[in-house]
Design brief:
Largest sheet of chain A: 4 strands, parallel
Order of helices and strands of chain A: HHHEEHEHEHEHEH
Number of helices of chain A: 8
Number of strands of chain A: 6
Distance between the termini of chain A: 70 Å
Radius of gyration of chain A: 22 Å
Strand order of the largest sheet of chain A: 4-3-5-6
Helix content of chain A: 40-55%
Largest interface: A-B, 59 and 59 residues
Oligomer: homodimer
Shape of chain A: globular
Structural class of chain A: alpha/beta
Chain lengths: 199, 199
Amino acid sequence: MAYNVGPLNELITQFERLPSIGRKTAQRLAFYILSQPKERAERFASALTEAREKVHLCDKCQCLTEFDTCPICTDEQRDRSTICVVEDPKAVMVFEKTQEYKGLYHVLHGTISPLDGIGPDQLKIKELMTRLADGSVKEVIMATNPTVEGEATASYISRLIKPMGIRITRLAYGIPVGGDLEYADSVTLTRALEGRNDI
Amino acid sequence: MAYNVGPLNELITQFERLPSIGRKTAQRLAFYILSQPKERAERFASALTEAREKVHLCDKCQCLTEFDTCPICTDEQRDRSTICVVEDPKAVMVFEKTQEYKGLYHVLHGTISPLDGIGPDQLKIKELMTRLADGSVKEVIMATNPTVEGEATASYISRLIKPMGIRITRLAYGIPVGGDLEYADSVTLTRALEGRNDI
């Protein structure tokens, strides 16, 4: 192909390597960058390197942070007797948005998935057990995703924690608020029935 | 929100500013970057700055290039008597992929669109007229998009060129190869009928 602008092609390739970005979108994004002021491209570039350099895992909860220990773990206002165990940092974001949960978190960074070669050792389970060792935690909320892997991981960790006498809870299953019963799958509906409450 | 990692938020914002990237996708892309080796982020960052710094407009055809004059304009093998006028550099890419067209190009960088405040002076029309002045070009192919603005721009430029005695052509309208007549709109079908050929 005669039309081959090296730096442009490289930029298209870099965009194309991102998940869910195809060739056409990558081209459109690259052309867009070229159409923007130089400062935009530079700011984007430094955001990439800065994020990758400065953001790492919190030494306590394993969530992403720019500090050694994240602001949630160091916040004296939070309830240190409760730990909510989630799969990834995105889940922490979602919980924090509710502004309801006041305890701490622990991020596993995945789920046990033998097919993908991910066993308990690849997850931050050892780090969780270390945090539970001093007896200050009274409740662990298992908030892994409601998938087969999420369930398996939750029950694996529950079995590890149970002997320590810590209360273990799981997020309630049920119909989503604002949803239509027509679209609820039967498994969810069955769980919603099982978990029904008096009003 | 307590969960606020500065560099991560900045990266999400940068992704979100790209066209067709929403908040959720921006978050997913940013988390993906953090999950990748540091070299990936650095290579992406340098691709951004390099492309923006090194790529500029060809001094002849106004297409994107890293050189003063692009490889197509300097290629002695190409037919210098034909210029294909397109709206943007992406169109040049598409033409070059066919490997059929052997002439030169001229990129307008837009179409006349009074509603968006784009008049003939904002496009690279003056540069096209300069190229045509020496009389070496025998044919100009108007290959703007088959939209109202593309048509208007093509006919505006045609009126400018006509007095110079240069042949002006327009891409053929018709049904796309491999398409189904069922999905052809009636305007396209009418044009296909009008342009029918003997077989």
